[in-house]
Structure formats: C-alpha cells, structure tokens
Amino acid sequence: MRKAIAFLLMMFLTIASFSVLNAADKDKSLEFDADVVLSSVMTLADNYINSIAVVLELAAVTEEVASLDWQRIKPLLAKIEGRKPGEVIAWYAKPDGTYYTVDDGLTEENQKDRSYFPKVLAGFTSVGEVVASKSTGQVSTIIAVPIKKNGTVAGILGVSLFTKTLSVQIKTSLGFKNDDIFFALNKDHITVLNIRPQLVFLDPEKQDSPSMTKAVKEMMSKDQGTLEYDFHGKRRVIFRKSPYTNWWYAAGKVIR
Questions:
Q1: pTM of the prediction?
Q2: Residues in the chain with pLDDT values less than 70
Q3: Domains and CATH numbers, the chain
Q4: Please, which residues have CB within 8 angstroms of residue 27's CB and are 6 or more apart in sequence?
C-alpha cells in the first residue's frame, strides 16, 4: 500500500510540474479567439491547482504525514517544493494554527485566522483563497487538505502557490501578444492572475477608472458575459466563473 501511494505521489508530482507548460511546446502564439483563449487560461490554471491538490491529498495518507512528526513530513514537502522551485511554499499546520515550512521549520506566524482554515479543519479540501503569504509576503493562492487520523482532523498540509509566477507561466505558455488581455478576480474583487503580473493583488475598483469599476460590479453579478471598459485604452473581454476556484476569469483585447 505504501509503495503504491509513493508511486502515485511521484506520478502526480510529475504531472503537476508540467501541467502549465504543455502549451509551450507548440512555440507559437494562439490565433486569438477570445472564447478559446479564455477556456485555455481557465483550464491551465484550474488543472494546475487541482494537480497540486491531488498531490497533497495523496501525501496526507502516507505513513510519514500520519505520524504528525515534522522531521518525517519535511522531506515529502521538500520534494513538492523541489519540483516547482520558486513557485510554491509547502507547509504543515497543526490544528492550533502553528505551522512549519521547509526552509524555516516552525514559524513564528499562525494560520488560524485565515479564511480557509476552519473549512479544512472541518475535513474539506480548500482551493482558491488568496492571501499575502505570512512567511514570504508574496501573493499566493492556497491549496490545503486535511490530515485525518482516527476520524478527526489532526493537521493540515498546504501549498502557497505564487500567482504572479503562475501568471507569467500562463502568458509564456499561450504566447500572448501585446494587445491581448487575460486576468482573474476572486470574490473580493482582487486581481489573482493578470497578463501583467505587476497588477496582481490590485483592486480594479480603485484604479481611477469608473467604467472598469462598473464592469467589475457587473462581472461579479454573473457567471459569464461580455464587458467593455477603459483602462489605458478601451478593452473588450469575455468572462466566465470557474466552479472549481470560484474565480472570474476574463480574456480579450485592447481595441483602441
């Protein structure tokens, strides 16, 4: 059983390492069809996040993690980080919110006040929450799974995935041009992904563009649609809400 889990874990680690890069092999830009591009961005991002969730769920049932011994858990998390250097921070948290990272060991911070924490303590996997990392300050989306032992949640395994890095990977993989647009917003109207990574974590309603503020409000009220707004030029996008991350993804073009 243990060997089977280890094999599956390594397999999914490999899938996760390459899931965002599969389009790069084509070495050419997409012919711009907004619906195709939107679907491609959503698929790449959601599948990448899901692949990490699967890795964590597999890891959570190994003997090493079930031991709740940081010295046994650490090598497993180091392998996850090693497959995606510079992209993620992998961590282990206790039910009281104290947590460990590969580089720092037991940190001085606490996760108990994070919005995802009660959900995972209740036994559910959490994806899509966006935070400024307590250990690095970088903007991250959290993937977290419960560690169950004797019918209760005894701890949490998690990954903080840097969304600026993910934005760059998507942009590179799909070969976007200068007047192309993609972005994603979460339920708090915060920019999670953007073709211009420096705009990640900005609130588009605070960028001195009344038409963009209006567009965001409309976007948040629907699961899909089309929008036009002004932000350094007139922009037209189509958008769709992901049922997996609960992010609103958009893709389009600067039209003048």
A1: 0.88
A2: 1-32, 134-136
A3: 2-16+31-163 (3.30.450.20), 174-254 (3.30.450.20)
A4: none
